[in-house]
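Per reviewer request, we include the raw input and output of the structure prediction for the construct analysed in the revised manuscript.
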Amino acid sequence: MSSFISRTCRTAFLALVIAVSGATWAGTAAFANTEEAGEFLMSLNREARTQFDDPALDEGQKEQRFRELAERSFDVPKISKFVLGVNWRRATEEQRNAFLQIFKEVNTQRFLPMFSEYRNQEFRVTKVRQDEKNEDVYFVSSTITRAEGAPIKVEWRIYRGSDSFHILDVVAEGVSMVLTLRKEYATVINNDGIDGLIAQLREKVRSGTTEPVITTTAQ
């Protein structure tokens, strides 16, 4: 994966972490019809602070709480189908289930270690708009204030399901996280097949190499 793609993914992952651990809502009357979408991110903030700032929780408990929070907040099945693209249809049921499980673990390992370092960064929701083509989909614009450098602009794509909102994508520095993963995974599958991709992700989880080394200072 190129350094640009790596940097984009790290920024997107940072945005995800900050959003669930330190957000402020800049809503106005103009957002009256879409404010629930922005409030969805704020509810993640409140729950994350309650869970991850609890000194009574050990690392294992924090990891389990984070896994539960992530599984409720992100539509992993939809994201998985998209990032695999046509390969999802080609995959066997066994391969699909294996990918879903390891994809959850990969993202848990990426996000959890960063909470303590980045949870106090300011995340500010600035605008929410409804998708003109799908009334259940919303685009939530936000900014992240870094320790140094200009704020980072991040846009979230979320949708209203039957029970709650769910995150589908994060666009940081103008690049979609799910599109980036789709390209990366397609390259691996073309070379090593779906089983090869699953094996590589398992190895990253086992070795801990999915942890991104990111910073909020200017690059």
